[in-house]
Amino acid sequence: MAARERILQTAGQLFAIHGYADTSLSQVAREAGVSKALILWYFETKERLFQTALQHFLAPYAIDENMLRGLNARQQLEKLITDYSDFIAENVGSVKFMLGQVAREEENAKDMVAYVSELYRVYRSLLATILERGRQTGHFTSLVKPTEDAALIMATLNGVLVQQIVEPDNAETLRGLLTRARQVIHAHLSGSPDTRLPPPPLEPSAADPASLQR
Fold this sequence. Notes:
By secondary structure, this protein is mainly α. The protein is built from eleven helices and no strands. It folds into two domains: 3-57, Orthogonal Bundle (Arc Repressor Mutant, subunit A), CATH 1.10.10; 65-196, Tetracycline Repressor, domain 2 (Orthogonal Bundle). The chain is elongated.
């Protein structure tokens, strides 16, 4: 890895963990195995290093709706889920960096946080549009609630994202979670009885006196 790339990767990790104020150029230099002078030669100031790191980690974040052309609603949903999971697997460092900035509410990163928030909104809106289209075409049950279900799908995928961050080396568990998430999501959207409605409450049993006393 070239020195400049190594500096950006290291800086991103340290900014994500310690925040802007508590990350020094000396620390970045030490962790990256370069001199502080080399960092200043590339980036001139700590602020410029931070902003460059932001742009570096924002680069993978994009949504191309053209990739969904020619697919029905069910196929579009599956592609979005697959692309999301692939993105997380390939960009764990970037995701950690972004989450670190959002959690710390860094003053320097407001534009980046706004960009990621807008991207999240666009993705959720796209999901809702697909769900509505699928409901109209019969690919999904008429009981689908596009806005609420889109938010629920996002929450599920974000849970998998957190799992990937917590256990980055457990690829088998991640694949299992994604497979199960797909099954549950598609079952819910197709109106399967076991996922569409909550189970009915248990009736007190005459054979269970304790239940009659509750």
